[in-house]
Specification:
This protein is of the alpha/beta class. The chain contains 18 helices and twelve strands. The model is unreliable at about 1-15, about 30-60 and about 530-535 (pLDDT under 50).
């Protein structure tokens, strides 16, 4: 090598030197080729191992679980999903032929270890892909006694390759196999936990795919915008792109942004319906707040006492009012006090007041002036100083929150009702919250209050079957807000840097994909070649 180097430096390269150089180059190439071959072999083995592990953990693993509720019942449903479902069905039915697909058949169930009869059940066979999970599935509809269910589960667990399902694993597999998107999965969960008619309707609509279809339609339009923008960047110099492509993209992005912004301005109807409308009862001590809570609940939920300041903490209960879920809270009485415990109760009351969707302000009617003008001023001061805690300020009657408040004038059984007959009308004319006159003791006026409360709650939630499906999860709102922000960034950078603006479109599309759980790039390429015939 020293001789070769010296020869090269002096410009004297003989035939033997050239042969030596070629051999060195060949050795280097062989060495590098071997390194690359080893590298790719290692990568292939690693990928194969990961694929095997993933296949073993998800595709090849057969799971089983009790799909119906726990406890004694008439019929219990046990589900099996995975490639060993066929063998499990045959084993428990004494190796009889499989029943016709999706047809219920009565079969005796036998313990595969001892041959002992466990039960006589309805069995169903769902070959892939037409099953809930998209895999081979079978179901055993057995009698719901705990001994029967336990025996069948133990028999399934004794079969090779079968494992107890983890929480939510059947639904997870349905999502992984493309049977459900994320919004449909969430709709299924909401349907299971629905406690009111309105919640059931909303969950069914989401589970049917209405919300997912809305997001998919937006994703398709945004994907087309992104594909056209990328095609303009990559192929515009080759005269393969028609004029005005970016103008069309701009127009479509603006339309998408308007639709998404309109969908976001829904006052959180879907989320309120899913979680329950928060209704908070506030007022001074001994106004009748706890009595009103008990009357609405139709049971003694809160302690009622003539002693002022009995309620020290928030008393909360869940209700169904007119088919809508309501979370009703009674709070500590608002007054000046040096009692530290009562002060903490009032702090919690004001905190809950800020979080409330509907506020019910309870007033002792015996404290109202009989003159209507003075009574209106009294209620204004009451709302301002006592409830809102604003000592020297005028009541902001234009506040949107006050529109949904209800002022309850309690204890009308202790006054002359005729003296206050015009109060609700005059109060409304002054732009103040609606007044409801009632007596928790006699029940007079209580039905009117419930009707008014139901109207407020229904207004908050809306009709889940009318219009576009509502956003039901906080994550839906977050990703959709992020999407609209990226669309705004596209317009701001469109004339400055089309490449950067296009990247914002990609980020917006990714946010939509996070809502449904479907994020990919194949659709973009399909649109590029379909719409522009790049390369013919």
């Amino acid at each position: 090598m020293v001789q070769f180097s010296c020869a090269v430096s002096h410009g004297e390269l003989s035939i033997c030197h050239l042969d030596l150089l070629l051999k060195i180059v060949q050795l280097i190439e062989i060495h590098e080729s071997n390194r690359l071959l080893i590298f790719f072999k290692q990568r292939t083995l690693h990928a194969s191992f990961l694929k095997t592990q993933c296949s073993d953990s998800h595709e090849r693993r057969t799971i089983f679980a009790l799909s119906s509720g726990h406890g004694k019942c008439g019929v219990a449903v046990i589900r099996v999903s995975g490639p060993a479902s066929r063998d499990a069905l045959s084993s428990l039915t004494g190796q009889r032929p499989l029943p016709p697909a999706r047809a219920a058949v009565i079969r005796p169930l036998l313990d595969p270890r001892s041959g002992e009869r466990l039960d006589v059940a309805l069995v169903l066979w769902f070959p892939e892909p037409r099953s809930f999970t998209g895999e081979d599935c079978c179901e055993f509809h057995v009698h719901g006694g705990s001994a029967v269910v336990s025996g069948v589960l133990q028999s399934l667990g004794s079969l090779p390759g079968l494992h107890p399902a983890e929480a939510g694993e059947f639904t997870k597999r349905a999502f992984q196999n493309g049977k459900l998107d994320l919004t449909e999965v969430e709709g299924l969960g909401d349907l299971i936990h629905a406690e009111t008619e309105a919640q059931r309707r909303q969950a069914l609509r989401q589970m049917a795919g209405d919300l997912g279809q809305l997001f998919h339609a937006w994703s398709e339009r945004l994907t087309q915008c992104l594909a056209h923008s990328e095609a303009y960047i990559d192929f515009s110099e080759d005269d393969n792109i028609e004029d005005g492509v970016l103008d069309t993209v701009d127009s479509e992005v603006r339309a998408l942004q308007r639709e998404m912004d309109s969908h976001l301005c829904d006052s959180r109807r879907g989320e309120r319906l899913r979680e329950g409308v928060h209704v908070v009862i506030v007022g001074v001590t001994n106004a009748g707040k706890s009595s009103l809570l008990n009357a609405v609940c139709q049971k003694p939920t809160a302690i009622v006492s003539p002693v002022a300041g009995t309620t020290r903490d928030v008393v909360e209960t869940a209700l169904n009012i007119g088919g809508y879920p309501v979370l009703l809270s009674d709070t500590a009485g608002l007054r000046e006090t040096s009692d530290t415990v009562e002060q903490e109760g009032m702090r919690r009351a004001r905190q809950r007041l800020k979080q409330a969707d509907v506020v019910v302000v309870v007033v002792d009617t015996t404290e109202l002036p009989t003159n209507m003008t003075d009574a209106v001023h009294f209620l204004q001061d009451y709302l301002n100083k006592v409830v809102l805690h604003k000592s020297n300020e005028e009541l902001d009657i234009s506040s949107p929150r006050l529109e949904d408040w209800i002022v309850v004038c309690n204890k009308i059984d202790l006054v002359q009702v005729e003296d206050f007959k015009q109060l609700p009308k005059i109060h409304k004319e002054h732009g103040l919250p609606q007044v409801c006159m009632l007596s928790c003791k006699t029940g007079c006026g209580f039905d009117d209050f419930l009707h008014l409360l139901r109207e407020r709650v229904e207004k908050m939630c809306g009709n889940p079957l009318v219009g576009n499906p509502s956003l039901t999860q906080a994550r839906h709102r977050l990703h959709l807000q992020n999407c609209t922000q990226y669309l705004k960034q596209y317009h701001q950078n469109r004339d400055l840097d089309i490449v950067l603006a296009t990247e914002y479109l990609r980020m917006a599309l990714r946010q939509l994909g996070k809502i449904t759980g479907k994020i990919g790039v194949e659709e973009i390429l399909e649109i590029v070649f379909r719409d522009f015939c790049i390369g013919k």
